[in-house]
## 1
Amino acid sequence: MIVQRFDHEDALAAALASRLVDAIVRNPRLVLGLPTGRTPLPLYRALRALTARALVDWSGVRTFNLDEFAGLGGDDPGSYRAFMQDALFDHIPLDPANIEMLDGRAPDLAAECLRYEAAIAAAGGIDIQILGIGANGHIGFNEPAGELHAHTHVATLQRATLEANAMLFGGDPDRVPKCAMSMGMGTILSARQIVMIALGEEKSDCVAGMVNDLISTRLPASFLQVHPHATVMLDHAAASKLI
Ligand code: PGA
């Protein structure tokens, strides 16, 4: 794992946005894996700014989001689809046909998970997967547990995760859907490159565990240790407990 530290989240976001735009220049048909949450917001702002300033050809780029709440359609303001439209998709010239997200309203969630895995495979796999990390060490909705899922699956969210997502539901963790669909650990680790972003003191313990401790299903992010091309981008607070 390559660990990079930045003085400020905007410097981190600018560096990652440039890396992604360079990757698009080299491969106009880049397949990107994208996260939601507070952490990627500076990145999405930086990508919007770079797109407004420079000629970024998004026309061939495909995106796959990590996860979506079960039961919510893309028109629900709490859905990750709505979050992505607002944070990024409405502001850059991505072809809507190239945006893939799990459909929380699909009648058969298990079938929807299989469809998603097949769509990722049909796109040739994910070139660069961007990740955040939960304060409990989750990636996507792969929550700490005795066993982890390899493929896209229906996940039950832990209390800490409901609380972390309450901002999308008027601040009320009890309104956050209890289930979601998420790429699995194998789906994520199959990406050719992984870039994790972590910001703030509340992530410092799980970041230290991810980098310095043994791999454990109790800290799903620790599996990034075995990925051949993983970068962890941190602000000083998130890096503060690294050995
Ligand atoms: P956050 O969530 O960016 O809102 O902290 C990250 C995550 O849960 O993966």
## 2
Amino acid sequence: MFFKIQRNPKGSIAYLVDATDQLNQVQLEKQELEYVLQEFKKDNHLVSINKYSHHIYLLKVNSPADWKNDEQVRKQGAQLCKLLNEKKEVAINLDNLSGHKKAAYLLAEGMALANYQFLKYKTDQKKLKHSLNDIFFNNQSLTVKELRELETIIQAVYKSRDLINEPLHYLNAEQLSREIQDIGKEGGFRVQVLGKAKIEQMKMGGILAVNAGSILPPTFNILEHRPQKFINKAPIVLVGKGIVYDTGGLSLKPTPASMDRMKSDMSGAAVVTGIMYAVAMLDLPLHVIGLIPAAENRPGENAYVPGDVISMYDGTTVEVLNTDAEGRLVLADALHYAKKYKPELVMDFATLTGAAANALGDVAICAMGTAKENTKEQLKTSGYRQFEKLVEMPLWDEYGLMIKSDIADLKNIGGPVGGAITAGKFLEHFTDYPWMHFDIAGVSYHVSGKDYRPVGGVAMGVRMAVDFLMHYVK
Ligand code: BES
Ligand code: ZN
Ligand code: ZN
């Protein structure tokens, strides 16, 4: 998908209006205008007119600019994208005549997010590929700075989705590391990969226990964006759960339904990689570090078993009562590793619990943490602005009691209730800095597509976090 600030004289044009008098600026026959007005009145806010050499699309957008109306424009973008692909259009000119200054940006964002496809494993890619490839803006509709932001964020989401959609057969932990290195080269951030020997030497017991049943080695990945000048006093650290496949281990998930999408259990890793790409491409004046523990959860010969007591990287002992609660074990080691940076803020992204998905569905990210109220408010604002909404859960002491073990310091599951929070309490144990946890289990993957979130990897969290970091600058 390409974005350009110029006119494509041959292409079709989409006009954005938020009041009907703005239609006077569009070359329409009297009958055509009447037709458009009629359709708008019937609440059809996307009308197309065939001019034979090209089409004209009229979009009525809602104003004023607020998070609900903005999302409506993104969705209209998805709707327009679908229509253009049906008509085999290759390019579209956007002309924002409305009073909503960001409408063209939002519409293009929705179009581009909707236009994503994962065709790598299709043999007839050419036939299946969407025709739409270029979005042109006139210079009243988008600034050069906005164009660069839009391009970067779309690329970040696409890369993140690609990683989520890759099956285990291709994307094991070592391959994930290679992909992160490639994205690092392209985006301009540093990547250091620690292999199994180093992970053993460091005694990262959580990662090693989870990976014990796999014949393939785990990796620990350190991503870094450190520009010459940065405004944060201490690093911001992003941690991503990189379980390249979650069978549940010996506490095997019932097949088929609950295992079908478990290739996506590295969505947190993909989201962190996407954020790092955007941060580096936009060259944000922030020192940001990404930590990605990558492993495979399998019931192989040497797999850890329910009842095992393992020693974590920080020395904490954990009684493993369910090998399917593996995400918190690999994350805990990474969260302990983060302490060495004395970070200003740590944010982790993880497909951690079915409980988070049960509570919020695919509508919102389940958030919790110990960051300052002000940070939380800014994160929530970014969540609304990007429509990657956050719902905060409390980390009250009562939930901490539920993960006390009889024979070790902690156990890796709580009771039958409060599962998203007990998982969060487990992670909190390994932090000593301002921290936020984002459980994206419910939102990271779509079995059937919706609006601009197609089937498969969604990469929810990337746009929220990039928005937050861009405003952190200001
Ligand atoms: N990867 C799963 C969580 C998950 C569930 C992600 C559904 C996406 C969709 C995680 O490792 C897991 O299995 N969690 C268990 C924890 C339980 C055993 C305490 C869960 O939520 O059932
Ligand atoms: Zn699991
Ligand atoms: Zn998992």
## 3
Amino acid sequence: MKILVTGGAGFIGSAFIRNNSTAHILNFDKLTYAGNLENLLPIASNPRYRFLRGDICDAAAVDAAFEDFQPDAVVHFAAESHVDRSIHSPAPVIQTNFNGTFTMLEAARKHKTERFVHVSTDEVYGSIPEPLDADESYPLRTSSPYSASKAGSDLLALSYFTTYKMNISVTRASNNYGPYQFPEKLIPLMIANALENKSLPIYGDGMQIRDWLYVDDHCSAIQSVLEKGQAGEVYNIGGSRALPNIEVVKKILAATGRTEALLSYVTDRPGHDRRYAITTAKLEAATGWKATMDFEQGLTATVDWYKANQPWVDRVRSGEYQDFYQQNYGAR
Ligand code: NAD
Ligand code: DAU
């Protein structure tokens, strides 16, 4: 099988590529601040793998990639993925997440690509009141430019199934964690800061709830959907481990041998969703997939990876990331 992967230099896309041992893969990625080819060093010289730098909003470049590679399937990860960035600067988020998805769908339509998996997020459901777990029919109630752009792109992808009968499935995953995650998201930021004895910024009261999914479990779920998912269907992917942020951060303090003196409660994120919780029953019934990583084990493995890869963190944390860090946290 030939798979065109978009956003394959990012956190989840690179794990998907590293974990795939059979397909021929073209990684189409713009290399924004979040794209890092170091994440792909384990597969860089494999003849099954090719990298092409390009923007999913550039229709001519996308068309040329389809023409040349002739993919059997597209797995579409590329996105501006960080909620805080989408609040500070929504334009690139709307451009890449909505218009970029449109470009990818048009190219797949033109080239009659057999299969398309659109990778989305449980954030499209917005905050879920206790004690509900959202299933795939839950209304879309987005709070941030990021989640709105993802909800829009989900609906666009599904419209290509309804209108053009394309073989498209949409996945909606919960919060991922694991090695190679850019240290702007909660878990890698807290690990990196703790290891450097920097303060750990907790938004608001820290009682917001997220459901944690180990990145390799997310990737195996996407592979299952690619192979066994039905056209026009949406599949939630969750880790079934919902925890308040402050509990997660305290586990990180314990795993890094640091104390609560590093905790710093800061102004809350605007429009902050209080609770994400989803059910993955549909995916499990349709494909047999189940998350396998226990959260405590996954967190230990992740902390160990960041400890062992401090040079990776140092390189990632230089330059543009520093500017963003100052912009987001400087006034808090
Ligand atoms: P990431 O930010 O780590 O990586 C995004 C990748 O997309 C980068 O390599 C970047 O260079 C590339 N990219 C961005 N704009 C592009 C463009 N215009 N053209 C081509 N490439 C571009 O993101 P991630 O955390 O790996 O997330 C991947 C996907 O999974 C996203 O669609 C995201 O919405 C979704 N998702 C993420 C999570 C999570 O917890 N991280 C959870 C659920 C769903
Ligand atoms: O739910 C899936 C989504 O999870 C994905 O679609 C997004 O791409 C991904 O970024 C993530 O979104 P969140 O906003 O939930 O993730 P983030 O890591 O930014 O924040 C997790 C929680 O931690 C959230 O309640 C905000 C809080 N937080 C985050 C940061 C970065 C803090 O308290 N302090 C921080 O410094």
## 4
Amino acid sequence: MKKVFIKSYGCQMNVYDGQRMADVLAKEGYAETAEQSDADLVILNTCHIREKAVDKVYSELGRVREGKELRALQGKDTRIVVAGCVAQAEGAEIQRRQTAVDLVVGPQSYHRLPDLLTRSERRKVVDTEFPIEDKFGFLPVPDRSRTRARGVTAFLTVQEGCDKFCSFCVVPYTRGAEVSRPVSKIVAEAQALVAGGVCELTLIGQNVNAYHGEGPDGRPWPLWRLLERLASLDGIRRLRYMTSHPNDMDDGLIRAHGDLPALMPFLHLPVQSGSDAVLDAMNRKHSAAGYRDIIAKVRAVRPDIALSSDFIVGFPGETDADFDATMRLIDDVRYATVFSFKYSPRPGTPASGAAEQIPEAVKSERLAILQARVEEHRQAFNAATIGRRVDVLLERAGRHPGQLSGKSPYLQTVQVETDACHIGDTVSVDILSQTTNTLFGRIVSDKAVASVA
Ligand code: 5AD
Ligand code: SF4
């Protein structure tokens, strides 16, 4: 049997796409392997969001090439594929920089992998089209045994692409225009995942709360209606969604955070900066006050909600006062978790040409200050869970025998000791203590609140 090794970088959508590539290739007789040296086919599913992410891909490609040469000495052939957002953005340039690459395929055309692989036997191939046909129509339904092997939580792409054009961001260029999948297709995929033992779904999209896919009534459905529909499916216990834009946080979706028990109390709502001048230059089309209002509305319906955001420091023109405004917003919101980045100029984006680029040293200093503060808040958020009883979905084996690890509703990692409970059980847990990244708790009774069939 032929073997494929797939390595995904970047966001959850790349993880999802990587799995769907494995599904397509399984039909062609490829089994997945975790060992690159065993693989007849190596796929790097790449991320273009920041320069560092791109650099990582090229250095990894150097290693993959060495692996290919070693295998060639043993008489084995290895095909190298670059997929994902670097493939989309750089196309044939990748094969100029690394001649060992056989095929470059963008995020909207990987359903064509079998055909492209055949063509690449004769010559190098690049496919970075945004095809008329929708890739989802050509991807096989996730197979039960492979789904089971991937665990009890799954990502499901419901929306892709972005029309917002934030001035720092490559996504509108690499992922294309905003498209929502129809409700019926999403429900069918969710049911296939449930049949494979999945009980928690994270709906993903670059702009997921702008979802407006066709409903069964032929009309566009907003995200909250899709969430309601999925919550009604047998076997779905937990729902999450990411990533959202503040301007698409409509009242229906906010209400769902109060009304829909399956919708977990966690909201990733990136704001990027707390300064109106910077938000304006970023083309975010909302103010810091507007963002605070949304947070207040969400907290009004779900006071315990865990909040999360992305921040960029050192955006062109960011002054000390702008940065202070970001820090004030962080102190006011008190996030459960935050992802923060130094601004990285991306080719083709408006901000990359801005005159007032911030020196690297200033970016580093601001990032360190920001990260220290959000870490304090994260620890405080976790500490506030100690002494509480929370439901935990057990997802994987723990560090030691007899331990299982899972997630609280707030997406915290929780470790428990148990002989009687299994992966896929939701158990009620008294939280007792914490280390930097993990909470420890005691299962209230060895009877699961819910289990996977
Ligand atoms: N530089 C730094 N961070 C960026 N992000 C997106 N583009 C850039 C960039 N050019 C961050 C944003 C976004 C997250 C996915 O990555 O914070 O929300
Ligand atoms: Fe990276 Fe954005 Fe592409 Fe995801 S969509 S892989 S974050 S560039």
